[in-house]
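User: Fold both of these, please.

Assistant: Here is the first one.
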Amino acid sequence: MATVDNLPRAHAAAQLWPVNPTTGRFSPSETPQGPLIGTTNHARYAAFVNLVESVDSRRAVAMYRGLYPLFQGAHEGLGFPGRHFNDRLVDVIDHLLATPEPTEPLTVQLVDVKGSVPSLRPWVRYEFADPELETRSAGQKLLLRIGLEHQRRLKATLAEVRSLVTQRTSGGS
């Protein structure tokens, strides 16, 4: 619930994700143009993308429909009484599908940290050099970081799930 709700926001805490964060650390490729998000970083997401694609979307949506009362109850428990979780899910999928597909490698920059205490985790201090990309939501930034091929593959699965979730069933839901 919280992950779906947080993806279109500025921050989506990894400890609330239903999957473990990707292994390894972000490591940009150094180029004359500056640090880029390169193929080495994109490769870190291959296992996750393969996992998502291995799930039968029809069966997953059928399970989702069967468990929907629990999802709805949890959604209301998060502070959204009277609002349908399914509507939020579709809105979030639409938001993720609207993520731009850059044609060039994305440049990043290391955020300067002021003070006398050295940063023990510099890999978490990178942001997109393009201010428009940096203002994107947590979910869209994630789709941008994983690389265009992975982004397109996940978007195809998201589009399929959206189509299935929004289909009317014989029961009228």
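And the second sequence with its predicted structure:
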Amino acid sequence: MIKVVVLGANGGLGQQVCKLLGREKNVELISVIRDLTQQSENKVFWDYLSRLPKAAACANVVVNCARSSCYEYNIRFNKLIVNSLSEHTVLLNISSNCIFAEPRGTLSKLLFKGDAYIREKAEIEAITNEHNNTFQIRPTIVLGESGWDEFLARVKKSKKVFVPKVSSGAKVKVIYANEVAEFVCSLIKSGFKSTVEEELYTSILPLEVLLNSTVEYSATTNNYFNSLLNNLFMFFLVSRFIPNWVVYKVQSKIISSNISKVNTTVDNLDIQGMTRLYLSGAHTK
């Protein structure tokens, strides 16, 4: 019998991992919850502000699916996880292949460090790698996950979708949320003998196929925005010149004011911001 603790058990991926592991007879499943009133034998409360509870810290395996919308908060609680774990506990950190994203253009690529999401994932990987028994699980575009599902729903409602002309021939790596959960569970069941690739995906799709829409190529070659001013701002924001904490603060304000969201009209959608980079950057060649 192995004890497996799932952090972020109420999230989309966490629920699927718990569902699969709950069927295994040799697994004692513990869900970490934030509501103290719901604590039970198989549910352990954690406030994500103090050390991980002993019942979780001494588990055989910890699957970290937890994440909030606050970048600094995510950094802090991942430090707490690593500082709390037993040296014998295996940590499965759900990261993202976004850390391999690259813009197009030699100068842009040379100076690129990433937006807040990319930096957060890279920083958390560095933190969790301080624990000897850590596996980094890096899903690609995850279909069935709310963020990408909402984006593709907007695509479906649009008559035309505009992407930069350099996106012609772009291919993106994708995986379904349930497939991520299945991989995590199979890795645990194998005793961690299964191969963990740098990126976790099950298919590579041409951009047009993923979008499943009429795609038109605009004249712009900008990595982020059609507007030269907005594009220049993003160029510096994601560059090595700007420290992580500044990017976290600035991008949080950008998101709250909707500046970085995809611009839409009634009939058309023009993919911009970091979504454009993820779907048509140099890594999609």
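The first helix runs from residue 12 to 21.
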